[in-house]
Amino acid sequence: MGNFKLLLIVLAMGLLSLAITPAEMDKQISAFVSNNSIMGIALQITKGGATVYRANQGYRDWDRKLLVDNSTAFRVASLSKSMSSCGLLLLVEQNKLKLSDSINSLLGFDVVNPNFPTKSITVEMLLSHQSSLLDCVAYDYFLTDTDIASSGTDVPKLRDLLVSGGKYYNTCLFANKTPGTYFTYTNMNYVIMGTIIEKLTNTRFDVWMKQNLLSKIGSLSYNPADLPVPNNLAALYTGLNGKWLAVKDNFNGTIPQRNLTGYIPGTNAGIYGPQAFVRATTDELLKYINMIRNKGLLNGTQVLKTTSVADLVRPRYEYHGEAGGSYDDMHAYGLGIASFGYYPNDNVLKNKFTVGHTGSGYGLISAYYYSGDWAFSFVINGILNGYTYNNDSIYQVERQWVNALVDRFVTEASVGEETVI
């Protein structure tokens, strides 16, 4: 028996030595940043909610030569969506609405797909991207005018986008698909959802979300002017003729509050982007996704009911052929959060079922995921030569570098731990 125990110890030590070390991880990430001409990256891995690895490399501000560090906040794009969904689910918990409600009854005006005029669009269809609404050029014009509005009274009305006869209305906004039957990833769904939150609470979307959800997690916010240290916000970059170009959040350390004098909540929540505007650190992103992993529990507080988290994560859409959605899109989607591992080409970590979301925009890509006890998040704020998609919803640099490296870390650490036990 003694020799057998000794053999087990020797085997365990051998397997543990296979695990990738933090120093090797740092080396691999440095090569990744250099080989891909990346502006900056923050990567963090947790197990059971505790950080087991983090890396910050490159610049958050190229012109001022400010480095990415633990305090760097990024505009995390579509990672915002599941947070917005959580905000709405808090209102469901308060019996302010049901997921099955028609959006017309909540908005106070009728949104009708002219191809299916008798079919209602529900809140659940919005959050699961099965509303039959599309992000076409009319939505782009609407967003541009939303972004440049000089006061609250100049903010365009959502009804002028969605109701026939409105300034921005166009039939290109509506797919020739019956609402509730086809998955098409559409940012506008979340602008509508945020506007519903404003209508129900009579509070501006970013303010209500800060008060009721985000403040429980940290200093993250849909409104960049809320950040306690403006210098910590990363600018977002693209490459132009081989040189870096700052295209978003290049505030140079001073973030002004928008003039929204005269704004009426329920007009257009797009002013603070329920679909994409959260600024957060990887610490905050992991606190959030670990709260979801822990069924709504964060630091001993039940932020969201267990039943609400189950509602959030449960796929409303699953790919079973082109009749319901494209194979080149996400394959399983809940309410602002996706599940990965249903098909060979959408694995995040090998042989592991994973829940989370990706984000992209203005040169940034981002993600957070959890699988079992593990969770990880990363943000890249620019790549000089642009990104390339695989035949799914994940960019090549994420799949081939970031996910592969995290997968190695998680797999090798797990092998060692299981052997010791």
Overview of this protein structure:
With 421 residues, the protein is of the alpha+beta class. The protein contains twelve helices and 15 strands. The protein has a seven-stranded antiparallel beta sheet, sandwiched between helices. The protein has a two-stranded antiparallel ribbon with strand order 4-7. A hairpin with a 4-residue loop joins strand 2 and strand 3. Helix 2 packs antiparallel against helix 12. The two termini are 17 Å apart.
Task: Give the topology.
Elements: H1 2-16, H2 22-35, E1 40-47, E2 50-61, E3 66-67, E4 74-75, H3 80-93, H4 103-107, H5 123-127, H6 137-148, H7 159-162, H8 188-201, H9 205-212, E5 236-240, E6 243-248, E7 279-280, H10 282-293, E8 297-298, E9 301-302, H11 306-313, E10 317-318, E11 332-333, E12 338-340, E13 354-361, E14 364-371, E15 374-380, H12 396-420
Antiparallel strand pairs: 1-2, 1-15, 2-3, 4-7, 5-6, 8-9, 10-11, 12-13, 13-14, 14-15
Helix pairs in contact: 1-12, 2-12, 3-8
> Quick one: how many beta strands?
15
Q: How can the largest sheet be summarized?
A: 7 strands, antiparallel
Mean pLDDT across the residues is 91
Beta fraction: 15-25%
Radius of gyration, in angstroms, nearest whole number:
22 Å
Number of helices: 12
Q: Could you say which overall geometry the principal axes of the C-alpha atoms support?
A: globular
H-E order: HHEEEEHHHHHHHEEEHEEHEEEEEEH
Q: Could you tell me how far the N terminus lies from the C terminus, measured between alpha carbons in angstroms? A: 17 Å
Report the uncertain regions: 1-18, 415-421
| Neighbour order of strands in the largest sheet | 3-2-1-15-14-13-12
Structural class comes to: alpha+beta
Helix percentage: 25-40%
